[in-house]
Amino acid sequence: MRRGLYLKKMLLSLLVLPACFSAKAQVVTLDYYFNHEVHNNAAGQKQRFHYLWDETANTGFSIWGDAFKKLSATLDTLGEAPTAANLKKSAVYIIVDPDTKKENPNPNYINEKDATVIAKWVKGGGVLVMLANDSANVELPHFNTLAAKFGMHFNNDLQNHVINDDHFDDGAIVTTGNDMFATAGNIFMKDVCSIAISGPAKAALKKNDAVIIATAKYGKGTVMAVGDPWLYNEYTNGRLPARFENDKAANDVSVWLLKQIPVLK
User: Fold this and answer.
1) CA–CA gap between residue 161 and residue 191 (Å, rounded)
2) What is the pTM of this model?
3) Distance CA 33, CA 134 (A)
4) All residues at 6 or more sequence positions from 9 whose CB lies less than 8 Å from its CB, including other chains
5) Which residue, 229, 259, 256, 231, is CA-closest to 245?
6) What are the pLDDT digits (tens) for 128-150?
7) Within 13 Å, how many C-alpha atoms sit on residue 197's CB side?
8) Structural domain 26-259, CATH architecture
9) Is 90 buried (19+), middle (13-18) or exposed (0-12) by CB count in 10 A?
């Protein structure tokens, strides 16, 4: 019964997508430049990993990618600094967990030039997703150069701290009735940073008065900021207790983001 209701809600969500979606697949691009982590694989060779579309391990985004593909979106990646030319084909651009020197000895920090290029792209109708992390695991100062363009600031704090798997409920956030979450009523986020908002930015999800997800309309475009890269496989592949619906949330967020793409005229 519950699964049938979930499928019905998902179908209704799909039916209200803009008409242009059925005519042309939208390109969802994942940044591989500001986050570029490498480790040694089983053969002892250097290998790119962490937050990749085709990475099926816990650290990958393959499940979230599948959610977009089910909505007829096309996945892409960007392994170089953003420019007007290489962002032009993308409808959605996702930047997740920019590298610190701990993760990459030569990180590509987001600078003012990058932020200006991205902001101009958003203003023209792009949908930007910024996924941060707790301050010990993400490079916030330069990420905030970009966030500031939209009235947002990732705070150097720790929300929803979860000690271990015996304390899952410390990471629980109720999403029932939230417009961004059509089917998920209870999600899990562990060790996130909060977001300060001003100007065009608005709180889309709070926990204990801390803003966890913020959104902003900027020109013709939309920005979504989250204090954690929470939709990676570890938290969407069924490992969590059944009361948490991150798998449904991945679908809900995908639908919401695609809805923000301006309708082609």
Assistant:
1) 5
2) 0.90
3) 20
4) 182, 183
5) 231
6) 999 999 888 899 999 999 999 99
7) 23
8) 3-Layer(aba) Sandwich (3.40)
9) buried
